[in-house]
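the two lines:
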Amino acid sequence: MRRFNFFGNLMLAVCGFSTAVLLVIFGYICYLLTSGVNALRLNFLFSSILDNGIFEPLIGTFYLFSGATVIVAPVGTLTAIYMVEYSSRSKLTRLVDNAINNLACAPSIIFGMFGFTFFCKFMGLGISVLSGWLTMACMMLPIMIRSVEEILRMILESVREAALALGATKWQMISYVILSSAMPGILTGIILSIARIAGETAAVLFTACFYTMRGLPKTPLDPILTLTYYLYVMILFKPGYLDPGEVFGLALVLFLLTTTLSSIAFAVRAYYRRRWGRWM
Amino acid sequence: METINLNVWYGKLHVLKDVNLKIPSGKITAIIGPSGCGKSTLLKSLNRLVELIPETRVQGKVMLNGHNIYDSNIDPIEVRRRIGMVFQKPNPLPKSIFEYVAFGLRIRGIRGNELHERVKKALEVVGLWNDVKNRLRDSAFNLSVGQQQRLCIARAIVTEPEVILMDEPCSALDPISTAKNRRAHNELKKQIYDSRSYSQHTASI
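prediction for all of em together
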C-alpha cells in the first residue's frame, strides 16, 4: 500500500513538474509575442539590414529552404519508394533503415560539420548557398523518407493487387496509383522537413552564412544570411545594433514562420484524410 | 482455358494439388467450395497474380488459346491484361470515378475520345452510368459498397479481356446489390462477351 502511494505521488510530482515547465515555455512565447509584436511593421520586414530591417535574412531563409526542398523532395520520395516497393528485407535495407532513424535525430551541428568538411572543403563549394542547400537537404532527407515511407506502408495490399491485376507494370502501378495515394505523405514530408530546417542555425552556421555578406546572393556560390543566423549574430556579437524590441520581432518572425509551416503540414494531412478516407 | 496438373505452394503449404480443369469459352463457370479450400488461389493462379505473393511456387500448366501462360517467354503483364479480375471486396483505387475505370485503358496508352467512349460503355453495362454520369470527377469512395463493386467490374471489363475472373464478387454485398450485380453479369454475358470465356467464382449465390 505504501509503495503504491509512493509511486502515485512520484508520478504526480513528475506530471506537475512537466506541466510547470510547459507553462513557463508558454509564458515565454507569450512574452515573445507581446514584446516582438510592436516591431512587426512592413518597414522592418522589407528594409535592408543596413537600415535596421530584416529583408535579406528573411528572403535568405526562403531561398535556402526552397532550394533544399527542390533537392530533397524527389530524392526522398524515390528512396522511400525503393525501400517499400522494391527492396526485400535484407540486412542492407535494415542497415539503411537504422541509418535513417539515427540521422533523423542526429544533432544539427554534426550535419553542419559534415557539410563544412564535405561540401565546403572537399568539394570546394566554399561557404555558399549551394553548400547550405546540400547540407540542409541531408538534414531533411530522413524526415522526408520517413513520412513517405509511412504512408506507402499504409496503402492496402489490395490496391497494389488491383492495379497489377489490370495488367499494370510495377512502374505504372507506382506512378499512377501509389504516387497519387502517397501525395499527402509527400506534401507533409516536405512541409515537416522545411519546418525542421527553417529554424536551423547550426547547419547553416558553417556552410552558408557569412556575416559580412551584404545584399542578396547573386549566384548559388555566394554566401547568404538567414533569420536564425542573423538572430544569433545580433544577440552574441552585435548587442545594441537592433533595439531589444526589434530582436524580439526577429525572433517572433522566425517563430511564426516555423509554426505556420507545421500548421500547413497538419492542414494538408487533414484535408487528404477527409478526401481519401482510409489512406491516411 | 484449361489447367493441367496445376500445383501451388505457399512456402511449405501445398494449396492446390494437381488441378485439372477445363473452362469452356463463352460461359460462366462457377467454382464452389468451403472457405480456405483454395478457390481464390486457383483464380489468382489463372492470371499469374499468385506469383506476387512472397514464397509462392507454381507448377503445371495453364493453357489459354493453346499457350501456357506460365511459359518462360510469356510476360505476366500481358497475361494480366488479357485476363481481368474482380476481387472479393471492392478495392478502389484512390482516384475519381472516371479515372478509376479508365486506369486499365490509360496504362495501355488509350486516350481522348476512345477512352471516354469505352469508359461510358463499361459503366452502362454494369448499370452505373445513370447513377454516376454527373459526378465522374468525385472520389469513388463516396459510392456505396455495391456500387463500388460494380465499378470494379466496369474496371475489369473496360479493357475487353478474354477471360474475367470473379472472386466472390457478391459476398460483401446485401441481397439487392447482389441482384443488381447479377443483372450486370448477365448483361455482360449477353452484350459483349458472347464468344468469350467468362469464369466466375461464387460460393454464396
